[in-house]
């Protein structure tokens, strides 16, 4: 992202056969070896999305919908009504809320399974395509959104370039990514919940993200380091991982049964221990999330920038 060619450092990954290489100048991390495009789909089986694109249990599904509604409200407060594009829109919940607010919603997903709910249940306009390679659209959108999707691109620089091209002059780019420069990432290392190797091709921090945005003539107007949706849970699950419990065990147990890769009965002792530690870990995670926000060092970052 910084354009330099310094020797990278490397660190191990939980996923066998992969490591993370990091630029010593801008701090960008990249998964190595990068899965080729014709093989990455095996890391997104149907179980990954859950039956009917429902990934979590009913209680957490309510939270997911509340977070998506809040996200739509944030965009509504910053962008005039008109066409908006959500790149990696998933189930399309945010786009549906934007439609209710009077916007013209469009989405992009890379597989039919990922886009099924958005297209067939919500009736949204969602292209199943590679955003970088799909037909060009110039100066069309009031906003382009990459909400925890930019790190899934094998060429995020090309994705940002395409977003700049697709935005109207003065249009807004919204990007949310895990913060690879954060204390969470440094402390937990390979056990950090937000790494998600190899689905995350790249691992951004504020320095590397700012470098690519400025290179493509975006004017950043806001950095947010607090995410109630992402940061406390990232700390909590990373603590469990670092203790040696099955990797992302709690995360799997919070999912709908159709999306789980492990059941309580498979790991009864570890599941019971996770439940026992939950109140203390939750309180610790909330406190640390507030502290990292005050230090502007959140486990995830959200960026708002305008096309110049």
Question: Could you characterize what this model shows?
Answer:
By secondary structure, this protein is an alpha/beta fold. It has ten helices and eleven strands. The chain has helices at 46-49, 58-78, 93-100, 112-121, 156-166, 183-188, 206-215, 231-243, 249-253, 268-294, and strands at residues 9-12, 19-22, 29-32, 83-87, 104-109, 125-128, 141-147, 167-178, 202-203, 218-224, 300-307. Strand 4, helix 3 (93-100) and strand 5 (104-109) form a beta-alpha-beta unit. It starts with 8 loop residues before the first strand and ends with a strand. The model has no long low-confidence stretch (mean pLDDT 95).
Key structural traits:
308 residues, 2 domains, alpha/beta, Rossmann fold, 11 strands
Concise synopsis of the structure shown:
With 308 residues, the protein is of the alpha/beta class.
Number of DSSP E strands: 11
Please tally the helical runs, counting DSSP H or I stretches of 4 or more residues: 10
CATH topology of the largest domain: Rossmann fold
- Which ranges are low-confidence, i.e. pLDDT below 50, for 5 or more consecutive residues? none
Number of domains: 2
Compute the CA-based radius of gyration: 19 Å
Q: Output the CATH homologous superfamily of the largest domain.
A: Vaccinia Virus protein VP39
* Mean pLDDT across every amino acid position: 95
Reading the helices and strands in chain order gives: EEEHHEHEHEEHEHEHEHHHE
- Give the CA-based shape: globular
End-to-end C-alpha gap: 20 Å
């Amino acid at each position: 992202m910084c354009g330099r060619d310094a020797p990278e450092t490397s660190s191990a990954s939980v996923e066998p056969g992969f490591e993370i290489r990091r630029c010593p100048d801008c701090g960008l991390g990249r998964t190595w070896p990068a899965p080729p495009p014709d093989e990455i789909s095996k890391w997104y089986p149907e179980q990954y999305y859950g039956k009917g694109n429902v990934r979590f249990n009913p209680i957490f599904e309510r939270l997911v919908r509340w977070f998506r509604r809040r996200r739509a409200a944030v965009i509504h407060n910053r962008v005039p009504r008109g066409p908006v594009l959500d790149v990696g829109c998933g189930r399309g919940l945010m786009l549906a809320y934007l439609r209710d607010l009077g916007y013209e919603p469009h989405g992009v997903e890379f597989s039919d399974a990922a886009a099924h709910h958005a297209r067939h249940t919500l009736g949204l306009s969602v292209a199943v395509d590679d955003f970088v390679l799909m037909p060009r659209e110039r100066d069309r959108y009031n906003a382009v959104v990459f909400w925890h999707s930019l790190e899934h691109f094998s060429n995020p620089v090309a994705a940002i370039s395409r977003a700049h091209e697709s935005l109207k002059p003065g249009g807004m780019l919204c990007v949310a990514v895990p913060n690879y420069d954060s204390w969470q990432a440094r402390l937990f290392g390979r056990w950090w919940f937000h790494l998600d190797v190899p689905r995350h091709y790249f691992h951004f921090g504020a320095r590397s993200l700012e470098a690519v945005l400025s290179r493509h003539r975006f004017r950043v107007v806001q950095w947010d380091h607090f995410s109630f949706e992402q940061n406390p849970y990232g700390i909590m699950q990373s603590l469990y991982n670092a203790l040696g419990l099955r990797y992302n065990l709690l995360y799997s147990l919070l999912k709908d049964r159709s999306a789980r890769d492990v059941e309580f009965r498979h790991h009864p002792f570890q599941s019971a221990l996770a439940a026992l530690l939950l109140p203390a870990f939750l309180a610790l995670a909330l406190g640390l999330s507030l502290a990292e926000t005050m230090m502007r060092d959140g486990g995830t970052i959200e960026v708002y920038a305008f096309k110049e």
